[in-house]
Each structure stands twice: as structure tokens, then as C-alpha cells.
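Posting for a labmate who doesn't have an account.
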Amino acid sequence: MTTDRFPEGKTYTKNMEVIAYHELGERPAFKMGMLKNAEGWYLYLSHLWHSGHTILEVTDPANPKLIRFIPARPHTITANIQVADGKMITSMGTRPPMFGGEPGKTGERGVLIWDLQDPTDPKRIGKFYIEGFIGHRHYYDGGRYVHLSCGLPGYIGNFYLAIDIDDPSYPQEVSRWWIHGQWAAGGETPPASPHVFLHGGAYVEGNRAYLPYSCAGLVILDLTEIREPKLVSRLPFSPPFNPWIGVHTAMPLSSRKLVLVNSEAVEENCKEPANYVGIVDISDETAPRLISLFPVPEKPPEAPYKNFCEKGGRFGPHNQHQPQHQPCLMQRDDRVYITYFNAGLRIFDISDHLFPKEIGYFIPPDPQKRIGPLPKTLVAQSEDVLVDARGYIYVTDKNLGLYVLRYTE
């Protein structure tokens, strides 16, 4: 096991083994993508507080090797990344104040397409300019279409937008879809809630797109005619759940006719309505129904705080492992890997979808050095998780480096 300046402090685990830690040059990472070729395995990371992307070789997961950091223009937030079909898709926007942005400073905007013929040296081959803000995650599993969450002038909040990258040097908009009321410039009456927006990106299965539309709930779109998306159904979640990001992730398990959904904790110390992780039955996709909720993670018995709300920072669900049909990534439909901010990584068994149960967790030590402005209380905040086809688990954090883990039971 490599311990690249492994953080000091107590680590809590259940059925988990820590394989490695990489400091990433003190650039905490956010989203991740992966590529495997004949030469090895490569992990691509976006960043929260730094403008750019990092490439690690993880052929030997116990010894991740830093290949390079690719800088972006200053004042640019580069939080999103996806790798598929020999391409890397990244997004950019002006860094907002909550992520360290400076008033009056602007960054580069839009979506970049990179060629990964040499996985250690991406070549920028195209750009789709977006004047507004690009959302939490985009979807690309190869081929022509990239599915985005983005905001544009004249709209209230982010909405769904698809682009065609068949000619990556000249990407084109294909279609857009929004909930009525978001198009203010079109004269629509704004939604009653200010939290109607597409936070995470679509997850696409066949001709269906599953949209996590914050307080507006789970939205299912028919993309049979991708230039004219049509609403299939919508399942609201807020109230009673946290309205700001009432549905953060919507990931279908099509073989089981289920969708995994979760909100995102927003306020520190749980000062908000309840968050959740749940399972939606879509056996009748015109009438989706919530059928189960995951148990709330409990603190380790030996932890010095009464519960995770008392610990500080955010406590609640955030990102799930999303394979997006990539053969180098874990494709299991009976297990959920999800980050829980100050509760670390949690793993759930959903072989019985009516009774999800927690089977493992990893809670990293709290950072000793602040790198980004959040959280207000300097505690561990696990952000994203990616699981490769070999079973190695990669976890990022707001103020720490990359952990490589393995489930042991």
C-alpha cells in the first residue's frame, strides 16, 4: 500500500480495505472518469478548487502514479468529466463565489471534447460554447450525443440539453427540454418553487432519459425522437424531502425496472428538511412509485460524536457510482456505492429492493489543512465515487486527496 503523505487521524471502516492514498499535489478532486487500454488503466479527475484536470495511472491500484495536471484558464471551474469511446468530455464555467470565485473575474465557458488516443496526453479537438452555467454532471457513454444539464440566458435554472459531437470539431445543439415555467423569456410563469432545475445530468438507457430535477422530482423523458424529447412521467419528492436538491441523482437499473434516487445534503449540521436515498419502481413508467428508503447511516460506535449531524460539515447523500455503460467500470445492479459527505463512503446491498441494507463503509480522517473554503467546519467531506471492473473503489474529498479502497466481505 502506498501512503503518499497519508492523512493523520482516525479512519473508520466496515468490510473495507484501504489500498492506497494519493495527495494529487494538494488539489482535491471531484468527478472522475476511467479508460482502460492494452497498456493499462487510467483515472481522470476534475477538481473543485483548482482549474484543470489530473491524470493518474492506476494499473497497479496500490501505487497510483501521477501522469500530469492539465491546467485550465484561471477563474474557471472544471468540476465535471466523463470518459467514453476514446474521448474525454469536460465542462467549464466561471467559478462561482462558493467555490472560491472572485467578483468580476470570468473563466472559460462551455464543453470541451478531447481525444484520448494517447491516454496520457489528451488532445483538445472541439468545444461547444455555453453562455450560462453547466450543471452537476453530464452523461456520455460513447457515440454521437452528449447529454447536459445547463442554464442559458432567458431560462430560470438549469434544464436538459443534448449536443451532437459526431463531428467533434463542430458540436451542435440537438434539442432541449425544460419544465414549463423555466423559460422566462418565452413568457412562461415562473415555477412556484425557486428550486425547479436539473441539478445532476440525465442518465440514458436506450431511448429513455432519467432526469434528477431537484424539487420537481424524477423526470422520465422519451428520446425516441431525440430532437423532440417527450415527457413520460414525473414523480415529485419535495415536499417532504429537502427541496433545494430534492433529486440529485436518478440512475436506472433497467433490467430490474428500478431507478435509484437520492437528494443532496446542502446545509451543514443537518439544518434542513430530511435527505434520503431511495428506490423507485418503474414497471409502469407512466406511474413511477417510491417503494423503499435506505437506512440512515449510523456513526461508528467508537466515534467521539453523538451522530453525524453533530460532527460538522454536511451529512447526507451526494454522488453514486455511475458506470454509464463503460466496460472498465463495475456494472452490478445489486449494490449501491454512494458518498455521504462527513459519513464517508457507504455501500448498500439492494438484492432485495424492498429492504436495502448497509454492508460496508469508509470514513476518512478529518483533514488537517484547509485547501478550499468549504466546509465551514474542517471535517472530511467525501464527494464522488467510482468503482472499476476489478472492484477497486476511488473516492474524492473536499480537502483531501484520492483514496483507493476495496470491499472485503
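Reply:
Got it, the C-alpha cells are right above this. The first helix runs from residue 308 to 311.
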